[in-house]
């Protein structure tokens, strides 16, 4: 639900005031134009514009900006870079032990400046910066794909933000607006296989080339996200696949989804309306 500054959100006295709200005359009032978010009794307003405001449990995609002593700084589109501590990442092979001085010397074997990573917000500091962790094999370094940047408020909150679409494309829908798009990885079988995959990735083993049909699916997903973004529509696995399948059904070239006049009409037509494909005539992939 969208609210504007000064609009009463609720008169329920049992709720807790969060970011973007203030109390007035026994009511909870919005102090920003944005989307209402509620977690249990905590009510906040996520601004439509501005930097990402982190929250514990958020899934983010970020870019490593600095390698320091025992920690990495990560740009997550917030007012301050997030911190990823050495103690908050998995060791090679998933080994569980205290980090040593040797681990500090090998930090660049994990992440270097410019690397894209997926992580979870572990805690928020008093200065507004976030502390991250990648202590799960579904998080870590991102390779062999592309990142799309959308406004954070358009990312619909889901139970799972790391998803594999039916078309075989893997997404990390970062709550900070960064969306990672890549081909789906083969499912690891058991803990040993997962550990082998983790170790191979962190030893920089060569990855299998992306096939042309896989690239085409990735591009169609990416442009479907761009069309939703340009239309101001919420971005979720369901909305992405709805647009993806509809455009594929009428054989709409992926590039046509970037045309505002085509994508705007395409989002409004019923499924199976082939007239849009004619509007895109002559456009190449």
Walkthrough of the structure:
Helix content is 22%, strand content 30%. It has 285 residues and is α+β, with helices and mostly antiparallel strands. It has three domains: 2-47, OB fold (Dihydrolipoamide Acetyltransferase, E2P), CATH 2.40.50.100; 59-202, Beta Barrel (OB fold (Dihydrolipoamide Acetyltransferase, E2P)); 212-279, no CATH class. The strands form four sheets. A five-stranded mixed β-barrel has the order 8-9-10-12-11. A four-stranded mixed sheet has the order 1-6-7-3, with no helix packed on it. Strands 14-17-16-15 form a four-stranded antiparallel sheet, with helices on one face. The longest helix has 20 residues, at 212-231. Residues 188-194, 201-206 and 270-285 have low confidence and may be disordered.
In short:
It is built from six helices and 17 strands. The chain is of the alpha+beta class and 285 residues long.
What share of the residues lie within helices?
10-25%
The percent range for strand residues is: 25-35%
Could you give me the name of the CATH homologous superfamily of the largest domain? Answer: Nucleic acid-binding proteins
User: Strands of the largest sheet, in order across it?
Assistant: 8-9-10-12-11
Instruction: Provide the residue-averaged pLDDT.
Output: 83
Number of helical regions: 6
How far from one another are the termini?
37 Å
What is the element string, with H for helices and E for strands?
EEEEEEEEEEHEEEEEEEHHHHH
CATH architecture of the largest domain: Beta Barrel
Our count of domains comes out at 3
- SS-based structural class? alpha+beta
Biggest sheet overview: 5 strands, mixed, barrel
Task: Write the CATH fold name of the largest domain.
Answer: OB fold (Dihydrolipoamide Acetyltransferase, E2P)
Name of the level-1 CATH class of the largest domain: Mainly Beta
Overall number of strands: 17
